Amino acid sequence: MLFKPFEFGELSTANRIAMAPMTRSRTNQPGDVPNQMMATYYGQRADAGLIVTEGAPISQVARGYSMTQGIYTREHIEGWKQVTEAIHQRGGKAFIQLWHVGRRSHSSITGLQPVSASALKDPDQVFGPLPEGGFGMIETETPRALSVEEIQATIGDFVQAAHNAMEAGFDGVEIHAAHGYLIDQFMRIASNQRDDQYGGSQENRMRLMLEVVEALVDAIGADKVAIRVSPHVIEGFKDSDPEIVELTLKAIAKMSRFNLAYLHFSENISRHEEVPESFRQQVREVYANPIMVAGKLTKQSANALLDKGYADFAAFGTPFVTNPDLVERMKNDWPLTEFDPDARLTLYGGDERGFTDYACYQG
Ligand SMILES: Cc1cc2nc3c(=O)[nH]c(=O)nc-3n(C[C@H](O)[C@H](O)[C@H](O)COP(=O)(O)O)c2cc1C
C-alpha cells in the first residue's frame, strides 16, 4: 500500500509516504529566512510522496523558537521558493506547516509578550536566547489572553500566511493544531478558562480551530488545506486533558464537510498516551476523508494502518533525518541508518553537518 499513488481532489502523490514536519532551525539571520541549504535538504528527501515542511510561524508573536523560518515577510516568501522548487524538480509535493505557538514562547524571542486563550502557563521550556549569551532552553513566560478582536486578527494572519505559501509555490498548507500550541491551548481546559464564545463548552473551545479551517478553505481551497492534531500527546501541558479525545472526535466530525486534503494525527512524541484501536475505529465512523498518521512508525506498522483503512498516508520524522532515500530503502528492504543520540545537537540549528550530509544507501 505504502508505494501506491494517492489521489484526492487536486492532490496527487507518487506514494503514501510523507515526511513529517520537523523544525531544524537553519535559517539565514537576521529575519529567519529559508535558504539554499534548506532547499538542498528537502530536495534530497523529495522521493517522499508528500513533504510537510517544518513549522513556520505565521507572525512575529506566533514565533516560539529562535531561528525558525517564518511565512510572513517578503523575504520569507522568496526564501521558501527555493525549497518548493527543489522539491518539485524531483517530482515531490510540499505542504507548509502553519504555526502559532501561543503561550509556548518568551518576549526575549519575539519582543512581544506571548498570547494564549487565557493568562495561564504550565512549566515549559522553549529554545531561545540565554541570559549569558548563546542559545538554549529557556522557561516560557506567562501569556496574556487574546481579545475577540485579536482572535479575528490571528485568523487573518493564518489566511495571509496561506496566501504567502501559495505564492511561494507550496501545494498546500497544514494547520498546526497539535502539541500544545495556540489552537491546542484553546481546546484544552487547563489553558482555556475564557467565558466568551471561545471558552467554556467543547463547542466554544473548538471554535478557533474550526474558524481557522473554514477561513483557509475559503481562501485557498479545501484540497490545499490540511490540519494536524494530537489528542493523545501531552506536550506543553503538565497533565492530560479529560475531554480532549471526545472534543477532537466531535471537531473532526464537523470538519468532514470541508473535504480537506488530509487530517494528520501526531501520536507518539514526548509525553503521550497509547492510541487505542477503538479510537481509530471511532475516527473512521465520523471521518471518511484522507488521514495521515505519524509517530514511531515502521514500514510494517505503517502498512498495517493503511491496510486496515485507518490511514491513507504514513508520515515518518526521524527516519527522514538520517535516510534521505527513505522511500527507496523501504521499497527495497535496505537497512536504515539509525539516529545516533550523540548527533542530537545537530537536530536544531547549525550547519550542513547532521542536516544535508546523511548519505543514500551505498549497498
Ligand atoms: C527534530 C524534530 C523536530 C520536529 N518539529 C516538529 C514541527 O515543527 N512540527 C510538528 O508538528 N512536529 C514536529 N516534530 C514531530 C514530528 O513531526 C513527528 O511527529 C515525530 O518525530 C514522530 O515521528 P517519528 O517517530 O517518525 O520521528 C518534530 C520532530 C523532530 C524529531
Strand order of the largest sheet: 3-4-5-10-11-12-13-14
Alpha plus pi helix count: 12
Name the CATH architecture: Alpha-Beta Barrel
Here the CATH topology equals: TIM Barrel
Cα Rg: 19 Å
| Count of discrete domains | 1
Can you list the ligands bound to this structure? flavin mononucleotide
The CATH superfamily name is Aldolase class I
Rounded mean pLDDT is 96
Strand content: 15-25%
Q: Can you tell me the residue ranges where pLDDT is under 50 for at least 5 consecutive residues?
A: none
What is the β-strand count?
14
Task: Walk me through this protein's architecture.
The chain has 363 residues and is an alpha/beta fold. It has helices at residues 36-44, 74-89, 107-110, 148-167, 182-187, 202-205, 207-220, 244-255, 277-286, 299-307, 318-322, 326-332, and strands spanning 6-8, 11-13, 17-19, 50-57, 94-99, 115-116, 125-129, 135-139, 144-145, 172-176, 225-229, 262-266, 291-294, 313-316. The chain has a single domain, classed as TIM Barrel (Alpha-Beta Barrel), CATH 3.20.20. 32% of the residues lie in helices and 17% in strands. Strands 3-4-5-10-11-12-13-14 form an eight-stranded parallel barrel, surrounded by four helices. The longest helix is centred in the middle third of the chain and has 20 residues, at 148-167. The chain starts with 5 loop residues before the first strand and ends in a 31-residue tail after the last helix. 48% of the residues are buried. The site of flavin mononucleotide has 23 residues, from strand 4 and helix 11.
